Amino acid sequence: MNTVDSNIPRSSVSRAIAGSRLLVGLLQGLALFLIYQAAENKLWTTGNSGLFAALLLACTIVPVLLVSALGYFPYRTLWRWLLPAATVLALLGFYDIWRSIGAPYWGDYGKIDDGARFPSPELWVHAVAGFFIAHALVSASVLEGRYIASYRNIFESASKLLIQVAFAGVFTGIVWLVLLLGAAMFDMIKLSFLKDVLDESWFAIPVTTFAFAYALHITDVRPAIVHGVRSLVLVLLSWILPVAVLLIGGFLLALPFTGLEPLWATKAATALLLAAAAVLVVLINAAFQDGSVTEEVALPIWAGARIAAFLILPLALIAAYALSLRVGQYGWTVDRLVAAFCLVVALCCGAGYFWAALRSPQWLSRIAPVNVLTAFILLLLLLAIFSPVLDPARISVNSQLAQLNAGKIEASKFDYEYLRFEGKRFGNEALRAMASAKSGKDSAVIALKAQAALQQNALWNAEPQKVDAKLLAVNIAVRTPDAALPESFLAQNWKEAIKDKAWQYPECLHNSGKTCEALILDMDTDGTVEVLLREQGGSLQVFHLAKDTWILAGTVDLPGNCASVNDALSLGRISTAPTKMEDVVIAGRHYRLVNKAPLTCPPAVAGKP
Predict the structure, then answer these.
(1) Which long-range contacts (CB under 8 A, 24 or more apart) does 526-534 make?
(2) What is the percentage of the chain residues whose pLDDT exceeds 90?
(3) CA angle 210, 216, 217 (to 5 degrees)
(4) DSSP 3-state of 44
(5) Which of 568, 547, 573, 555 has its CA nearest to residue 483?
(6) Distances 506 to 448, 476, 552, 565 between C-alpha atoms, Å
(7) Which residues contact 219 (CB under 8 A, 6 or more apart)?
């Protein structure tokens, strides 16, 4: 136990460190203000944005760790923890910017920016989560005087810190609401000085950091508040556990009868199963708490926790199988890699909790070491993911390129936009190499699509692009046998033709990265063919040539996710048939009957359209 903690009463320690904590809050605000001013004055450029991100990340998180640790850590131990923490944060921030140079920047609506680049939202979230876990482990270790503290102290440190941070966030938000209210009241009587001050960064940033530090200190002075809130939240969560066990257990019992196909059809099986596993882990720990609660646990919670410990592993295994199927078909992407990292944690918890449920002499006492081990594994994974070791962008780019080179993906259907917007610098370097390729299979198509992708600076284009005839021919795959798109259709300036109505048209006409299927059919038997375009799984949009201009004539609604329809269209099996009811004419204008009956999926008939 820390000698400072044992020799000085809690209130005395709090009074002694109050000034230090508030000073840290003010100094943090000053540091962040100076960093912000440098960005406003364009002192940070793309070339030194790595330093900007490193300073911003370290100056945001490290002072919070310092405020929390003051009064509990000996000074030598304090700096032995904070200096490595600041170094790791700075390196992560620097690498986060380095890997994004040359790629569209998230901070300016997807456009490339030549000024300061902020760390990515993903890094912010996971850096806060990772250092929350690490600080809780270190705090418990320091206060107990051991490298790895007892689970009771780890739980105490983690739960206390979580509630403190939550309260500090709420407190800071309320402070700002009061300030804004005061500014609005003064503004009503034509006194705008407070409103003007609140708009100034030299005031707003230090006030925010000062309020946050003050709230952390107050919650530390009043430990009864923390314990009371924690007890209430844990009791409420623990009573949700039997309901979750009933629902998730029922789901697993139903799977042998329904099969896995309905689950795969959701295309979100891995995420849903991992979410269910995470819910069980949280609720089990809400019931388990620090492990000291045993005999007074209510029977439904006791039974629910033991049953839940057996359910996590099958959920994780099914999720792993689902992910393996997707990766086998389509390769790795950033999302699938993140899911794989989550699966590692889920499998650790699942296997550990399964073992604990079988071997624990008292209730689930052996999940304590499982939780500690999983926390260390999670920290290592977070560090690896946001460093060059296991960078998801680099791994996914290599995987997608391997799929293309192996012929598993057609060059015209390859997702070049993924490399542009998700592949960071690795994807954009690959695109530049592809754009200059002059040999190899489908090199002309690959170069054309890669060049078009490199010209896009926003994933969601607010305005339609002009897609030239060559690229349009690549983007549209004709499924009608022995047919081709009319030259006039390819040559039309679709950007000009659709103007402000782009949302009504297939994206392949005005977005260089999108693809469509086309069917060629004379629908009005006038001797001139119509072009029917279909985006994946969508309806058919019919284009008709009128006075040398192709116009959108109408839409043919199709049942969604219908295998027989998809198969028939992919083979070009389509024909026309006379309508059973003619149009009606009102005031000289034709009106057509629209079938409002529910669309159903017809059975597949070999050789029939």
Answers:
(1) 529/483, 529/486, 531/485, 531/486, 531/489, 532/556, 532/574, 533/476, 533/506, 533/508, 533/509, 534/506, 534/558, 534/569
(2) 51
(3) 90
(4) coil
(5) 573
(6) 20, 11, 10, 19
(7) 163, 164, 167, 168, 225, 226
Q: Are residues 361 and 260 in the same domain?
A: yes
Does residue 424 form part of some domain? no
From the CB of residue 13, how many other CB atoms can be counted at a distance below 10 Å?
19
176 is in which domain, residue-wise? 3-231
Give first-to-last CA distance, the chain, whole Å: 79
Task: Please give the Cα distance from 555 to 533 (Å, whole number).
Answer: 10
How deeply is 573 buried, as exposed, middle or buried, from its count of CB atoms within 10 A (0-12, 13-18, 19+)? Answer: middle
H or E element that contains 248: helix 241-258
Q: Exposed/middle/buried for 362, CB within 10 Å: 0-12, 13-18, 19+?
A: exposed
Domain assignment of residue 449, yes or no: no
Query: 364 and 468 share a domain?
Result: no
Could you tell me if 93 and 51 are in contact, meaning their C-beta atoms sit under 8 angstroms apart?
no
Claim to verify: residue 141 and residue 290 sit in the same structural domain: no
Give yes or no: residues 250 and 184 share one domain. Answer: no
Decide: 269 and 319 in contact? Cβ < 8 Å: yes
Closest by CA position to 114, among listed 195, 186, 172, 49 = 49
| C-alpha span between 525 and 419 (Å, rounded) | 44
Q: Which long-range CB contacts under 8 A does 602-607 form with residues at least 24 apart?
A: 602/562, 602/564, 602/565, 603/564, 604/563, 604/564, 604/567, 604/568, 605/564, 607/573
- Predicted TM-score (pTM) of the model is 0.84
Most confident of 67-71, 584-588, 589-593: 67-71
Q: Measured between alpha carbons, how far is residue 526 from residues 464, 522, 546, 551 in Å?
A: 32, 7, 12, 16
Is residue 32 a contact partner of residue 59, using CB atoms and an 8 Å limit? Answer: yes
- H helices of 406-468, where? 416-421, 424-435, 443-454
User: Same domain for 156 and 191?
Assistant: yes
| pLDDT interval class at 111 (50, 70, 90) | very low
Determine, yes or no, domain membership for 440. Answer: no
Domain co-membership, 223 together with 249: no
Residues in CB range of 544: below 8 A, 6 or more apart: 523, 524, 530, 550, 551, 553
Nearest to 158 by CA among 128, 135, 126, 124: 135
Single-letter code of the amino acid located at 440: G
The string of pLDDT tens digits covering residues 495-507 is 888 877 878 888 8
Distance, CA of 160 to CA of 168 (rounded, Å): 12
Helices (H), ranges, 41-74 = 49-69
- What integer pLDDT is reported at residue 108 of this predicted model? 52
Per-position b or e across 580-597, b if 16+ CB within 10 A of its CB: eeeeeeeeeeeeeeeeee
CB 349 within 8 A of CB 312: yes
Helix axes 299-330, 241-258, angle to 10 degrees: 40
